Structure formats: C-alpha cells, structure tokens
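for the writeup, i need someone to sanity check this before i put it in the appendix. the sequnce is what the collaborator sent (i think, or maybe the updated version? ugh). structure was predicted straight from it, no edits. if anything looks off just tell me and ill rerun, i have time this weekend
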Amino acid sequence: MSDQEEDFATMFEASVKARQFKRGEPVEGTIVAIGPKVALVNIGGKGEAELDVAELKDHEGDIEVSVGDRISAMVVSTTRGIVLSRKGVRNAATQRELEDAYRSGMAVEGKVVQEVKGGYEVRIARGPSTGSGSPRAESRGERAFCPLSQIDIVRTTDTAVHVGKTYAFNVIEYKNGGKDVVVSRRKQLEAEQAMHAAEARKAIVAGAAITGRVVSVPNFGAFVDLGGGIQGLLHVSEMSWTRVSNPNEVVAPGDQVTVRVLRVDEATGKISLGLKQLQEDPWTTAASKFPLGQVRTGKVARIADFGVFVELDPGFTGLLPSPETGVDRGGDLRKAFPIGSDVEVVVLEVDQDARRIRLSKKAVAEQREQAELREYTERQDATPAQSVGSMADKLRDALKGR
C-alpha cells in the first residue's frame, strides 16, 4: 500500500470516530481529501465525513472542486461514520443565489439551451464564480425563461443564432421559490451601453467612418447603433448612388455596417449617416461616359408634369423635358412613354456638379433625318458620274458596229 493510500485510510478510519450529528442536519465543511470513490470533508470535531465523489462532478464527469474548497451538504447517515450528500442542499444554495441576484440586480451567467414558445430556455449556472461576479454556466443549472424581446437589443431574423451561447443575464422575475425565473439579457446590454455612451459619443463627429449595427429598417431608411446605445439615421437617399426604393434590399436588422457621419445636431442629438459616401461616386465619369450628341437607349423610370425621367445606366437618370419628347402640347406623356419601356434619346447636356443629364427624343428623329439627307446627297453626287460612263460605253459600242 502506498503512503498516499495509507494516509487516506487513516483519515477515513478517523472519520468513523467523529462527533455525533443528526440525520438531515445541514452542515458546511472543507474538503480535505478526494479519493477515487469518496471524498473526506472536515465538518468540525475530531473526524471527517465522507461524500460520494459523483456528487462533486459536473455534467461532463469532471470534479468541479478542489481540496480546501468549502461546500454545503446534508447528513444522510450516521450509522458507520458520517455520510453526506449535496442533493437538495446544492439546489437550495443555487436558488438562494438566484434570489439574491434578483434582489440585488447582480448579473448571472446562463446558457441558452433551446428555443421555446415566446423565447428561450436558459440554464443558470451553479457553483463558483467565473471571476466576473456571476456564477459559472452549466447545462445542469437552474432553468429560467428568457422572452424573445429580452435576448438582445435588436431583433434578429434568425432566432436560433442564440442557442448554445452563454451570456450574462439579469433576473427580472423570481417566483414560487425559484420555480418561475425570468431573465433578461437586454437589461444587461442596455446597462453596458449606458456605461460606454459617453466614450462612444466622442468618436461620433462629422466626417468620421464608424462601424455600427443596424437596429431597425423602416421604409425611409435604417437606424444604426453606433455604440453605447447611440443611434443614427441612415436615410434611404444616402444608401447608394443608385435609386433605392426599399431600404431592406440594402441592409437588414443585425447587419454590421460601416457608415460615414454626415451631420451631428448638438441641439437635438440627431445623427445623420451615409453609406454611399464610402463608395466611389460614379458621377465623376459622367461626361466621358455620356458624350454630347450620342444616341442611347434608356428605360422610362417615372413621369413628371414637366417631362420623363429615363434611366440610362444604374445610377444615371436623365430628364427628357416635355418640349423634347416629340409629344404635342397637352398630349398624354404616360401613354406615349409607359413606365419600364425602352426609349431612344440623344444626350444634349451633362452637368456633373449638379448631377443632371438633359435628353431629347426629338433630336433622335432630327439626327435620322439628317443622316438620310446626307445619304441621299451622297447618292445624288455619285449618279452623274455613273451616267457619263454609261453614255461613253454606248458610244463606243455604236462605233464598233460601223
């Protein structure tokens, strides 16, 4: 027998001679030895109590305590020495921790186990602290419910993304002795945001490029969290150099986006953001892309009282003024230019600074008439030469016949 085994046997024998304890009595003690099957716990007196090592293991089968750790237990037998159990006492300790966390507002760690109706099942840790002031998360911990609205600050399209994750939670409801526990991660995130708000605001200045998270997408744009709970508006007109009719086609809640800070209104706290400002401006090449006098085919984008807007290329829409449409005054432009139909136009003017292109439908017909006239003139110029040649050939043939 080894010296270690002898020492353990000696301590075990001494535990039999321990002072009297009553069955069912709760006790606290210090672990003094851990053997293959039993551990010895000093609960006062001359000897040590024994405890099944299985009750010291976590769900993965690893012993979760060490020699010198204090534990709570209950006396379950005094027939041959003192035998302890952590069952019941351990759960009660966890419930006390949850109740304390509920009353004090202290954060606890929990693992999101699965989705349930209206939210998630969360297992709150039991056992020693992780060092952050919240208990360690285990799959065998106390069960709690987290409503869907309380799992995050923003609602994500994929609700399963949180399953399997370990987060810090606040206990917002504690009822029926711990049987009904409701937790919130949102409360914890909002508290963290408030702490970082002042620092985050220092970085939010006009011209700065900041990475944030899309919180919501109404029909006029998107609200972006820039940090510390501070939100800015990314208007739909600032999302792209091309026309955007639905902002959901560009961003979605939960997306990480880098935006440019356009304006900060110190009086109201409103922050205007831009996304297209971080992209190359296509209008810098508009003049070379659309030479004056060029005939191009575009698509009718929309009709106004003063003319027709024609999309020449993505991001480039020109105006076909009413006098240049070829439609008589008082005529129906909508009938002459159905939305989405193709139309040939001539580029009359390109103003890069004003981002305007002026077009003409009448000029297409005029150019065609001029081209036909040139072709006819060239044909007429060539006809006399051909006639003289023909007459010479006939004269030559006649002389040969004599």
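Residues 362-400 form the longest helix (39 residues). The domain at 3-87 is CATH 2.40.50.140 (OB fold (Dihydrolipoamide Acetyltransferase, E2P)).
thx in advance!!
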